[in-house]
Amino acid sequence: MLDNAEGYVTEDGRKIGGVVMEMKNITLRFGGVVAIKDISFDIREGEIRAIIGPNGAGKSSMLNVISGFYIPQEGEVWFHGSKRPQMRPYEVARQGIARTFQNIALFEGMSVLDNVMTGRLNYMKTNIFQQALWRGKAEAEEVENREAVEKIIDFLEIQHIRKTPVSRLPYGLKKRVELARALAAEPKLLLLDEPMAGMNVEEKEDMSRFVLDVNDEFGTTIALIEHDMGVVMDLSDRVVVMDYGRKIGDGTPDEVRNNQEVIDAYLGVSHD
Amino acid sequence: MAQTQSGAEGMQSLPALLDRNATQFGDAPAYREKEFGIWQCRTWADTADQVRAIALGFLEIGVEKGDHIAVIGRNRPAHYWSMVAAQMVGAVPVPLYQDSVAEEMAFVMEHCGAKYVVCGDQEQVDKVIEIQENLHQVKHILYTDKRGMRKYDHSQMNALSDIMAEGNTGHARLGAELDKRIADITYDDTCVMLYTSGTTGKPKGVVLSNRNVIESARNSAEFDHLTRNEDILSYLPMAWVGDFIFSVGQAYWCGFCVNCPESADTMMTDLREIGPTYFFAPPRVFETQLTNVMIRMEDASKLKQRMFHYFMGHAKKVGGQILDGASVSLGDRLKYALGNMLVYGPLKDTLGYGRFRVGYTAGEAIGPEIFDFYRSLGINLKQLYGQTEATVFITVQPDGEVRADTVGVPAPEVELKIDDTGEIHYRSPGVFVEYFKNPESTASTKDAEGWVATGDAGFIEEDSGHLRIIDRAKDVGKMADGSMFAPKFVENKLKFYPDILEVVLFGNGKDRCVAFINIDLTAVGNWAERNNIAYGSYQELTSHPRVLETICSHVEEVNKSIATDDMLSGCQVHRFVVLHKELDADDGEVTQTRKVRRGFVEEKYHDIIAALYDGSTNISTTTEVTYEDGRKGSISATLEIVDAPIITAAQHKVAAE
Fold first, then answer.
1. Contact call for residues B170 and B60 (beta carbons, < 8 A)
2. Among A157, B224, B367, B396, which residue has the least CB neighbours within 10 Å?
3. CB B423 within 8 A of CB B456
4. H or E stretch including A233?
């Protein structure tokens, strides 16, 4: 069914569109170390796409290639049907790609609200002087963006910590604030780097529900890296499996689960 | 006050009152809800339109006269509107507790036979769908929050806003029928049906008529001189009769504004922002707030601490008297005014009571110190005694006659009598019509002359005419030696310590009393932090030797105070355990309104009770717990049993001499 250029329909009846992003023969090297070796896969509109693999498989490097932070030595990144030139991360953000980080990267001293507001940067047109004067356009712009942010705060159910400094929040909530900030950019493609790492079962369940709701409510395409196999298999529509920088599997969770090479990579196999 | 109720005479239903409010003061705020960080305001005129749209929508989906419409959700304007809209089309609204698990809800849904359900969000919809698998009675589910609902089968489901739009579109076709149904409503038609949470047995559906609700609202509003300028915060469960009377009955009668918090977690912030003029809260809310104030004062600067303690000392002396209008010397008044400027005023603002004109606490006994603390600040907090069956009001405390140990005089138009066994009976216009589909219970509660048995034991103080409650009549028992056993009396004394959240006393028919104690995690956790006591979990904290020591000293003090009471000196706590888990409504140990289900607790923890009586020093036990999503797990613990010092009457006399 994946050959269909028009997309496909998932088991739960969601319609997945055409290809949004395509990675073509990506190879990434750090000096002599090959982090990613000749990998190709695509991400389709509206799907939840997972990248999994054991430690050091190159998942985070892959995400950094997608977000434009790393420039691969070989291969091409195609976005919305055209080859993406070398870009700086902020230019990638303007194209509608937002991300969260494995180790939380929020402004600790600022309130939740202010942190999420920073996600609206690309929607602010007034300059620093206009904002300092706080007249007319700058004020209207802030009100408009605050509205958008409040909708996200409501969506992620973090109203009660709106004015709380991030440094005072527990880990699980910080992760949620990071997601809020990424969503504030109204991305077309959302990259989540281990969104459930270090969470307890309840926090994982909450986060899973938010990921599904974001996809469902805003139609956001999501690419995520995750360690927790259970979560990945439940959440995602298609999974790419990496091991030692190579792609060893690609398909629906069921296909991947029954792939012998994937099983070997996860459970280990004797090399004799 | 005249301006609020002009034209209200002869109003015989909530839709009629709504119409009056929209006509007479359509521009006044009727509802505010904090959404997206801003208080969104709806006027009475706007409210009338919204309610009518919902009612038209109800007609569109085929609601018949006499149908029951369940409403399950948190306090939101749309849910209140749905209840009034249900009345408009001749249906009966049945608000349900939103935190009940599906099985609990199933009983009520089946009992009232609700064909239509208004749900707050996906969580409630899921429960209804689960119930529907066995029940097959629900014809249509409506929901207010669209989040996550896209994928559901919508053949029998709609967003409330969608049927409102459909209703408005079909206005020309449905309007005449709706007007006819509104005109048909009589004073004795059912206004609402509320399920009592019931400390024993299955919940009972209390049917309240328009007469019950409107007359109770009128009497109580006149008693406290409520006007249409009041602001209230609606945060208590919608299924509870109090919320229905305050947020619907009195709000429609007086025409005041109902403010709905953003979410349960933001209630305290919202309280501060709104600053209600008329407020209702169970003692627990006041206790929590006071605990927080005291904890924060500990961290305040030395100057602030000294100022706080100095002026609170003065307030304790004269604050209550000034509030009661008693004569106080000019010097004391000036000092109080200064204190008001420096301490009381700012403190009231922080608590959200800056505009507090009148407020009530009920449901449980409130600690005298807590009660006096608020009154000494100039906050007119009073107590009332009520029941669902009475449409809330049985007795209330009039201004100037407020005391911590009584519940006041009979409310307007309420007659009171105490029977031979000490049980309180009452008769009033608010007396409920019947228990739905339960004539036996109706007959055993309400006699032919309209007197209702409360199930509470109490007496009327001769000199003041105030009612004092002793305990639930059925909980009052006898000890083995024939002396009186009144568990509530002892439990309340213990619960007044901030460290103690809940107490269950056992001893009926035994030679001595033993107790279960729940510690208050906020207070004890804070104490642990300040004393450098490390703990990993609630369970670990409960078994810490120093915690047990503190609790034991509380028990000892209470025993001393009980020993002075001739009637109840046998109720001293001989041995107790600090339970390893909080008593929880999800486990059925307390009701949704947090009243202890004694019988159930006794049965569930019979092993611990046995150990309390057989003299062992500890007990290992495994307890089943239910998580919020309905799954079950279990926790095991070894509980230490503590022997408390007992004060014998003789000893007491010696000490007194």
1. yes
2. A157
3. yes
4. helix A229-235
Q: Shortest CA distance to B524 belongs to which of B505, B555, B549? A: B549
CB B118 within 8 A of CB B70: yes
Count H helices, E strands: chain A?
10, 12
Do the beta carbons of residue B84 and residue B181 sit within 8 Å? no
Top-confidence residue, B223 or A92: B223
Give residue for tokens 């007359």.
Answer: B215
In this complex, the residue of A12, A151, A157 whose CB is nearest that of residue B36 is A151
The beta-carbon neighbor of A160 closest among B148, B151, B263 is B263
Measured between CB atoms, which of A146, A151, A159 is closest to B263? Answer: A159
> Do B332 and B317 form a contact (C-beta atoms < 8 A)?
yes
The residue to which tokens 């019950």 are assigned: B212
d(CA B305, CA B309): 6
- CA B219 from chain center: how many Å? 21
- Which residue, A72, A118, A110, is CA-closest to A93? A118
pLDDT value of residue B199 = 58
* DSSP state for residue B244 in the 8-state scheme: H
pTM for the complete prediction?
A: 0.82
A160–B266: do the CB atoms touch at under 8 Å? yes
Beta strands in B55-121 (DSSP E): 68-72, 92-96, 116-119
Q: A76 near A54, Cβ under 8 Å?
A: no
- Span B409-467, pLDDT tens digits: 999 999 999 988 788 999 999 999 999 999 998 998 999 999 999 988 888 888 889 99
> What are the φ and ψ backbone dihedral angles of A107, each rounded to 5 degrees?
-85, 100
**Cβ-proximal residues to B122 (8 Å cutoff; 6+ apart), any chain:** B143, B145, B147, B148, B149
Test mutation, B121, B122, B126, B147, chain A, max A CBs within 10 A: B147
